[in-house]
Amino acid sequence: MKKSILLFAVLALFTFDINAQNYDRNDAIGGFGIRGGANFFNFGGSDASNNDYDNRVGFHGGLYANMFLGSRIALEPGVYYSIKGTQNDDFANSRAILNYVDVPLLLRLYLSDGLNVFGGPQASFLTGSRFEGDFFGSSFSYETDAITKTDLGFVVGIGYNLPKGLNIQGSYDYGTSPVFKDSDAAIYNRGFKLSLGYSF
Q1: I need a surface site. Which of 31, 84, 144, 189 has the fewest CB within 10 A?
Q2: 163: which DSSP letter?
Q3: Among 3.40.50.2300, 2.20.25.10, 1.20.1070.10, 2.40.160.20, what is the CATH number of 2-199?
Q4: This prediction's pTM
């Protein structure tokens, strides 16, 4: 199932890139590209507020494409590998490390040739999950199957196109699927991403 979804997403990226060439847009704005950067994620939700969760730094990287629907509006699918999770300021400095493949479908509005805002749905597919910590001078790590396999959510953000095809952006991921499966706890993946991209 995951392989089929990823294959469809990659094919969609190339199809959208071909369609994007039909529009007379600057290469710094449209086209096919790569993007990566830092993640600052935590557990959010009403039940997460009862714990000492802190932001954990991770990273993301992947591919995107722009398909213009008009002179200022573009549809942007993407496929990214993304490390999320959280850490707890407890005696063991415990932390959750959650690895996902993010597949966002964004609508991007260009306020100018440089400045743009965007938002849209995102499906995230879990590829690995583990808990780590430090206890009496030793470190421990173990994999867990307690994490929900698919996380549905939304992405919103703001970006700016630089010269030579470069772009920067900041975004917020708002997960709506509970992190822990078989649990009624209102705990979700929430966090910021800072990204640097390059359009070909």
Answers
A1: 144
A2: G
A3: 2.40.160.20
A4: 0.81
